[in-house]
């Protein structure tokens, strides 16, 4: 009875010590780098508020509405049903998104596994033994005796979280769950951005092909006109040769454009998780895409919350911070409580008889004394690892602000470029018509006509490129701002809840 009372008091004392020190933690305060305030613009100098206008498709002004939220399905701002459908297929079938989802499920399973340490571990055992024992060990000279033994027990073990090690291990895994959640959101955002960019490339390349074919048709007519003038003796044969060379050069630009179109179509097929030969890629046209006129731009402080890559980097910092606490806690004792309750008897009929009952209650403590510098090296390693992810977080923030700033300036300059290219195209078109009329009348030489042709061809292709660039940079800005997932927070995976029993966060640092 005395030994039972003594063991019980020892166990209760250990549990009391665990309760007293349970609020202690060796996890350092999270160190977060400086970020600009909302009053600081994204760009060097005043941020653009409205872009210039230009004649023709995709030439209207774009208004940048600072402090406004994006729509989650940001690509719907382009008002293309074909694009909406393709993105829906991509989000459903993309292997990169599916991989990120599987990694999230794996991280959740690891977190649940680590959460089990907060609770007692209970196991049962049952054994039956038949043995012969020698009597010589007891000084006898007989042949020994035989016996049977049946033992069954219920075993319980528990690690009191005295210094918060268990909680730190769990917080590390919980942070990694959040990291995988944001990686999944980043995979979705990257996928939608790539699909929109590839769709714009398809539309732009298709427009260049159509423009090139129209130019080739015009060159063929000019070649026929030049040959007729040569037959009439109005020009030399050199003009015919030059026009044929111009036609051949223009025709040579068509196959690379068709190859590029095939590459973009194949890219779209793979992005939506399909084989190029089986995918049904829509025939995108620039005229089918609506350039967003009003673009919401989040404030600087909100960008840190809305960019999935920034949130993922923050989760990595939190995980690394918990590892530092784990390394510091290794210098202190580890306590383990074990208990067993069961029966053992030589006859199964006596198995549940009170005289056959057995029990044990054990409390153990282990304290590192000399590890050859191992523990300090582990702590130094954890701190260095935290510095790595800290600098990665800084780089991620700087990169995000750089992307937004570049995209804002790009929208401003793209509009100015398109305006200038449209004016150049109109001038080249007027000049070509005048030179053609003069050439037909014999008042202008062929060199002037050839120069006007080249200028018009280049201007027409340049306008198409400038139009597509506005679409691409608009998509780049919307992606750089985070894509708008936060307007429907219920779609974000819920973080794993920390157990409330023995895993409460510490109130102070000890």
From TrEMBL:
PROSITE patterns, per database record: PROKAR_LIPOPROTEIN
Membrane topology according to the record: Lipid-anchor
Compositional bias (Low complexity): 493-510
Gene3D superfamilies found in the cross-reference section: Outer membrane efflux proteins (OEP) (1.20.1600.10)
One GO MF term attached to the UniProt entry: efflux transmembrane transporter activity
Coiled coil ranges: 401-428
UniProt-annotated location(s): Cell membrane
Protein's name in the database: RND transporter
Organism: Acidithiobacillus caldus
Organism phylogeny: Bacteria, Pseudomonadati, Pseudomonadota, Acidithiobacillia, Acidithiobacillales
């Amino acid at each position: 009875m005395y030994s039972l009372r003594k063991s019980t008091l020892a166990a209760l004392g250990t549990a009391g010590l665990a309760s007293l020190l349970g609020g202690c933690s060796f996890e350092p305060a999270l160190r977060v780098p400086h970020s600009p305030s909302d009053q600081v613009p994204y760009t060097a100098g005043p941020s653009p508020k409205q872009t210039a206008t230009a004649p023709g498709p995709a030439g209207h002004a774009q208004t940048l509405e600072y402090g406004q939220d994006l729509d989650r399905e940001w690509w719907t701002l382009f008002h293309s049903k074909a694009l909406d459908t393709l993105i829906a297929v991509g989000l459903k079938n993309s292997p990169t998104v599916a991989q990120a989802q599987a990694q999230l499920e794996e991280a959740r399973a690891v977190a649940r596994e680590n959460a089990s340490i907060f609770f007692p571990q209970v196991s049962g055992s049952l054994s039956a033994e038949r043995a012969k024992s020698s009597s010589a060990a007891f000084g006898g000279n007989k042949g020994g005796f035989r016996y049977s033994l049946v033992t069954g027990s219920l075993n319980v073990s528990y690690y009191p979280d005295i210094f918060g090690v268990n909680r730190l291990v769990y917080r590390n895994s919980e942070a990694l769950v959040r990291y995988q959640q944001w990686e999944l959101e980043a995979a979705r955002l990257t996928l939608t951005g790539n699909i929109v960019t590839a769709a714009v490339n398809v539309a732009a390349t298709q427009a260049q092909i159509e423009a090139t074919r129209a130019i080739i048709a015009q060159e063929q007519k000019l070649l026929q006109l030049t040959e007729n003038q040569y037959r009439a003796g109005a020009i030399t044969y050199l003009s015919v040769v030059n026009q044929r060379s111009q036609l051949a050069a223009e025709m040579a630009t068509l196959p690379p454009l068709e190859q590029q179109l095939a590459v973009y179509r194949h890219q779209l097929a793979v992005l939506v998780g399909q084989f190029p030969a089986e995918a049904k890629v829509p025939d995108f046209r620039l005229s089918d895409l609506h350039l967003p006129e009003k673009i919401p731009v989040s404030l600087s402080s909100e960008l840190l919350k809305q960019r999935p890559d920034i949130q993922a980097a923050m989760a990595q910092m939190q995980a690394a911070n918990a590892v530092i606490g784990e390394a510091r806690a290794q210098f202190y004792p580890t306590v383990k409580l074990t208990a067993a309750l069961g029966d053992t008897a030589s006859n199964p009929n006596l198995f549940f008889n009170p005289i056959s009952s057995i029990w044990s209650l054990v409390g153990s403590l282990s304290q590192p004394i000399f590890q050859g510098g191992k523990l300090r090296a582990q702590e130094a390693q954890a701190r260095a690892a935290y510095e790595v992810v800290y600098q990665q977080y800084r780089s991620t923030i700087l990169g995000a602000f750089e992307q937004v700033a570049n995209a804002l300036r790009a929208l401003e300059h793209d509009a100015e470029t398109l305006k200038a290219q449209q004016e150049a195209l109109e001038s080249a078109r007027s000049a070509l018509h005048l030179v053609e009329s003069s050439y037909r009348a014999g008042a202008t030489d062929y060199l002037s006509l050839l120069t006007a042709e080249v200028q018009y061809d280049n201007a027409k292709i340049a306008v198409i490129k400038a139009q597509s660039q506005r679409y691409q940079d608009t998509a780049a800005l919307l992606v750089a701002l985070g894509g708008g997932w936060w307007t429907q927070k219920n779609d974000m995976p819920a973080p794993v809840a920390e157990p409330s029993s023995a895993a409460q966060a510490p109130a102070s640092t000890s």
